[in-house]
Design a protein that fits this description.
By secondary structure, the protein is α/β, with parallel strands linked by helices. Helix content is 31%, strand content 26%. It has two domains: 143 residues, FAD/NAD(P)-binding domain; 173 residues, D-Amino Acid Oxidase, subunit A, domain 2 (D-Amino Acid Oxidase, Chain A, domain 2), CATH 3.30.9. A hairpin with a 2-residue loop joins strand 9 and strand 10. Bound molecules: flavin-adenine dinucleotide. Keywords: Flavoprotein, Oxidoreductase.
C-alpha cells in the first residue's frame, strides 16, 4: 500500500462524498468532480432517512454500522443535521398489526430497537400523531440527516484537511489509465479513480464498464410548509411493510393475500414515509416506478393519496404543499447485492446501485470500499 494515494472521485452524491470522506479519514488526497454546480441526483431528492427498521437480516450489520458512522459524523460535522429521532410505523388494520407484532417479537427486534406501542404510548412519544391507528411499531434506531445541506457540510470538513478539493460543474468525460479528463479538458492524475455516477448508467459509466446489472427506479415526493409543531419521530404507514425485506414472513404474506392495497397505492407501488426537516416542513413520499421511459412530469393521484393518509394519521390538515419533485435512484438487480462495484481497470471502479438505501448505507459503503481496496 502506498502511504498517501491520490484519488479522483466522480460524482458529488452521497456515495462519492462518503468514499471521499473515508479516503480523507485514512490520510489520502482526494479530488472530487461533480458535473452540476451541486449534487443533483437522488441524494438531494431523498428523505434523508437512515433507515434500519425494514432492512433484511443479512443487511442489518452493515446498516447498523452505517447508522453508527452517521452518528459519529454528525458529532464531528454538525451541518449534516444528524438526529437519532427513531420512527413509528402506524398500523391501521388487524393484518398490519400482525406484521408489526411479529417484527416486535422477531429475533432481531432488540438490535433494531423495535417495540410495539399502543395508541397512548405512540402519542406520548410523538404528540403530533393524533389521528386514527391501532398501534405503532417504534424503531428507536432509525435516524435522519439533512441531505441537501449534508454534502456541502461534509465537503467543508474535508477541505479543512488541505487534502481535498471539489470541482463543481466538472463533468468527467474520459478516464485514460488513471487520469480523468473533464469537459473543459482538464486532466486530473490519480492512483485510484472511483466513479459514483448514481443513476447515470450511460455515458462514461457505460464506456467504462458496459451494461452493469443495475436498473433505475423513479419516486415522487413532496414537501409541506412548516407543520407548526414538532413531529418527534419519522412516520411510516403499514403499506411500508410491503416494500422492506425485513418484514417478510407469514404475517406479511397474509397481509398481501387478504388486504389489497388501496387502488392508487397499489398502482403506484406506494408507502407513506414522512420526516420533519429542520425548518419544520414535512418531506412526504413515495411512489415506485420501474418501467422506462419514466414520466417527465409528476402525477397528481399519488399526492392525493399521501395527503389523505398523512392527515388520517396526524388527525389534522397538512400544511400547504410547497414543493413536489421526482427522483431516480440506481438499484442493483440482484436483491442480495447491497451495491454494485464494477472494475473497469486495475485502479478504476464504478460504484452505484445502492437502491433506496444509499443514504443510509453511504458511510459504511465508503468504509467497505476503502477496506476492500486496502486504502
Ligand atoms: C426520492 C428518493 C428518496 C430516497 N430516500 C432515501 C432515504 O430516505 N434513505 C436512504 O437511505 N436512501 C434513500 N434514497 C436512495 C438514496 O438517495 C440513493 O441511494 C443515494 O442518494 C445514491 O447516491 P449516489 O451518490 O450513488 O447517487 P446520486 O445522489 O444520484 O449522485 C450521483 C452524482 O453524480 C453526478 N455525476 C454523474 N455522472 C457524472 C460525471 N460523468 N461527471 C461528474 N459528475 C457526474 C450526478 O450529477 C450526481 O450529482 C432515496 C432516493 C430517492 C430518489
Amino acid at each position: 500500500m502506498m502511504l498517501t494515494m491520490r484519488l479522483v472521485i466522480i460524482g458529488g452524491g452521497i456515495l462519492g462524498t462518503a468514499h471521499a470522506f473515508a479516503a480523507i479519514g485514512r490520510g489520502h488526497e482526494v479530488v472530487q468532480l461533480e458535473r452540476e454546480t451541486e449534487a443533483r441526483g437522488a441524494t438531494v431528492r431523498n428523505f434523508g432517512l437512515v433507515w434500519v427498521s425494514g432492512r433484511s437480516a443479512a443487511e442489518l450489520a452493515i446498516t447498523l454500522r452505517s447508522r453508527m458512522l452517521w452518528e459519529e459524523i454528525g458529532g464531528r460535522v454538525p451541518g449534516v443535521g444528524f438526529r437519532p429521532a427513531g420512527s413509528i410505523t402506524l398500523v391501521r388494520t388487524e393484518a398490519e398489526l400482525a406484521v408489526a407484532e411479529a417484527a416486535a417479537a422477531g429475533p432481531t427486534a432488540a438490535e433494531r430497537g423495535f417495540e410495539l406501542l399502543d395508541p397512548d404510548r405512540v402519542r406520548a412519544l410523538n404528540p403530533a400523531l393524533r389521528g386514527k391507528f391501532l398501534a405503532g411499531l417504534h424503531c428507536s434506531n432509525d435516524a435522519a440527516v439533512e441531505s441537501r445541506q449534508a454534502m456541502p457540510a461534509l465537503r467543508a470538513h474535508m477541505e479543512a484537511t488541505g487534502r481535498y478539493s471539489f470541482y463543481a460543474g466538472a463533468e468527467a468525460r474520459t478516464v485514460t489509465g488513471t487520469a480523468v479528463i473533464d469537459d473543459r479538458g482538464r486532466r486530473f492524475e490519480a492512483d485510484l479513480v472511483l466513479v459514483c455516477p448514481g443513476a447515470a448508467h450511460t455515458g462514461l459509466t457505460r464506456e467504462l464498464v458496459g451494461d452493469i446489472p443495475v436498473r433505475r427506479v423513479r419516486l415522487q415526493m413532496m414537501q409541506t410548509a412548516p407543520l407548526g409543531e414538532s413531529l418527534t419521530t419519522a412516520v411510516a404507514d403499514g403499506d411500508s411493510f410491503r416494500y422492506y425485506p425485513g418484514f417478510a414472513g407469514p404475517e406479511l404474506e397474509r397481509l398481501n393475500r387478504e388486504e389489497s392495497q388501496a387502488f392508487t397505492a397499489a398502482r403506484h407501488k406506494m408507502q407513506l414515509l414522512c420526516v420533519q426537516r429542520l425548518h419544520g416542513g414535512l418531506t412526504i413520499g413515495d411512489t415506485h416506478e420501474y418501467d422506462e421511459p419514466f414520466a417527465f412530469d409528476v402525477d397528481e393521484a399519488p399526492y392525493e393519496h399521501l395527503t389523505a393518509v398523512a392527515e388520517e394519521l396526524l388527525g389534522r390538515k397538512l400544511p400547504t404543499v410547497v414543493r413536489r419533485w421526482a427522483g431516480v435512484y440506481s438499484q442493483s438487480i440482484d436483491p442480495t447485492a447491497i451495491v454494485t462495484r464494477a472494475q473497469a481497470a486495475d485502479d478504476v471502479w464504478v460504484i452505484t446501485g445502492a437502491g433506496g438505501r444509499g443514504m443510509t448505507l453511504g458511510p459504511a459503503l465508503g468504509e467497505e470500499t476503502a477496506d476492500l481496496l486496502n486504502l
